Amino acid sequence: MKKSVYIQSVGSVSAQKTFDNSSFLEDIITYNDTTIRVIDPNYKEYIPPAAARRMAKGIKMSTVSAKNALTEASIEESEIDAIIVGTGLGCIGDSEKFVKDIIDNDEQFLTPTRFIQSSHNTVAGQIALGMGCKGHNFTYVHSSISLESSLLDAKLQLEEDEAQTILVGAVDELVDHHVNTHHLIGHIKEEPTETSNVLKSQTKGAIFSEGAHFFVLSNKKNEGSYAELLGIKTFNTLQIEAVETEIIHFLNDNSLDPEDIDLLILGNNGDVEFDTYYQTLDEGTFASHPKAYFKHLSGEYDTANGFGFWLANKILKGSLVPSAVLRGKHEIPSPKSILIYNQYRGENHSLLLLKKC
Hints:
A hairpin with a 2-residue loop joins strand 11 and strand 12 (347-356). This protein folds into two domains: 6-218, Peroxisomal Thiolase, Chain A, domain 1 (3-Layer(aba) Sandwich), CATH 3.40.47.10; 228-356, Thiolase/Chalcone synthase (Peroxisomal Thiolase, Chain A, domain 1), CATH 3.40.47. The strands form two sheets. A ten-stranded mixed beta sheet has the order 4-3-5-7-1-8-12-11-9-10, sandwiched between helices. Strands 2-6 form a two-stranded antiparallel ribbon. It has helices at residues 49-52, 57-73, 92-104, 113-116, 122-131, 146-159, 176-184, 243-253, 276-279, 295-298, 305-318, and strands spanning 6-13, 32-33, 82-86, 136-140, 165-172, 193-194, 211-218, 227-237, 263-266, 291-293, 337-344, 347-356. It is globular and about 65 Å long. By secondary structure, the protein is of the alpha/beta class. Helix 2 (57-73) crosses helix 5.
């Protein structure tokens, strides 16, 4: 018999004040720009300064997020059986710096540090080295479903009892060359937009950002568990008219009906060309369902759904839906089941289903 999978703790570094687990979106930060960066914690409290100076930003964000998740789970580092990380771009900042050094130094006198830290699996490797974890260590680079791939790997291992406790993370950092490229191809909004109004902007492109989100998953439930992870499904491509049908099939596969879902969390990012995928859910079966959004708080990046997953877990554990994410005037006193639907530019659709413990 397959075991159930539970989220035991969360950790997040984002454009909001999320690295402190004692608060939950109580002080919303609003930006007016085309790109937004994370609110940096005091890295010295988590990482020795000498080590931090050599770390890429993605590694530092992930270290803080992972340590917060491990601390909240109240487990020893030796109890972690595996570390799985999803990332769309990895440590792209060091990659860019290394290529720049090659050009500037005419391919001579290069130090290997930036090359070593530029690979996508650097984050998972650095965390494992710091913890002394010699177990399964894997990085998924699956664009905007990188987090979902990591969660699926962990879920399968836990269900089959191949592992008991797994640290799962998602991270992406924002760097200049990446931003400039996406400005040129129209994936980032042309004009600065206030984040609180971005979902109503009616313009092309999104507000790009960065973040790191880590979670401790286990096949054993305890008093502090956030939620049970019931199901995960991804689609490379999906026609707009098929979204509702596929969601219903997904729920049925997990022995649920649409009326069993208390809250839909959607990945709208304010791109007028692609938010239409979510707008279809305002009609038909899900028209009256309460809906919440998060990318006006987190910004858009390959693993932005990590913020959505963090949000869903916090809502289920605290039995509270912050007004900053809720659309309309629905009252949801104590949601018990949440469905997260996300996609990016019409591709890499994902469904995550969570139930309150």
